Amino acid sequence: MSHFSIAEARALAVGPEVDLAAIDPASTPGISGSSKDIEKATAKIEDEVADLQELLYANKRAGNDPGNVLIVLQGMDTSGKGGAVKHTLAGLDPQGIHIASFGVPTEEEKSHDFLWRVEKALPEAGVVGIFDRSHYEDVLVHRVHQLSSAEEIERRYQAIVDFEQRLVESGTRIIKVMLHISKEFQKENLIERLENPEKHWKYNPGDVNERQLWDDYQTAYEIAIQRTTTDQAPWYVVPSDNKPYARMVVKYLLLDALRSMDLHWPEADFDVAAELERVRNS
Ligand code: AMP
Ligand code: MG
């Protein structure tokens, strides 16, 4: 069974009634979990994604305004955000991609509205942007640790919806992905990070403190997703205990966005026949 298609990826979009506990992080909807099938389904679209991204970038270079794509990745520690960035963008033209990761805000960032640093990190026209964490931290970690008042967090859900609506209206395809892992899987990942010296750089003792707040985070995620999933910028809850599956889904969602842009190769702004003649005679 390796017939995974865009329709199966789209089916992971959730509505405002989403119940995270009802989505099994170990499941692989639309395909068997076998790595062979997943590899095959991924390989099937790699060339098309790369070609469409080149087409998008070509339009930017030609001075058109082809729109852009923004992939927002959220997920608990070890959910595979970094790996998803790497695999989603592998094979794309590095000139046409933009990666931004969001950690604890600097003092300067804290002195501005929470969307300030996000605005600055948006991809330009013609570029595929990917966020490793995002403005959603400002309603996730902020809710769990009460870093902002309940009123302020309440305000932010709508501020996010308005912000994303504005982006969509100006030509951005937004793909919001929650890499949904189980608590048990996170434990395995953390142990693996500790047991392998090559992974120590990824380990942060603070992750265990956050892990102890697992249920609070799940609630914060569920509320954030319920409040900000819209027809134009839906959330996809992607089961991610099987990392290759999750990466495959993100690639299919990117393909969906790129296809929807209806891109064409920019027309030459010179006389092609005359130029051919000149080159041949040179
Ligand atoms: P990592 O993604 O592992 O580099 O960790 C980044 C850390 O920054 C996580 O613990 C996030 O919760 C935290 N973080 C990201 N954005 C914010 C924010 N707006 N406010 C507070 N903490 C944040
Ligand atoms: Mg981390």
From TrEMBL:
SUPFAM superfamilies: P-loop containing nucleoside triphosphate hydrolases (SSF52540). GO terms for biological process: polyphosphate metabolic process. Pfam families: PPK2. One of its GO terms (molecular function) is polyphosphate kinase activity. Residues 37-262 form the Polyphosphate kinase-2-related domain. Keywords: Kinase, Transferase. This is Polyphosphate:nucleotide phosphotransferase, PPK2 family.
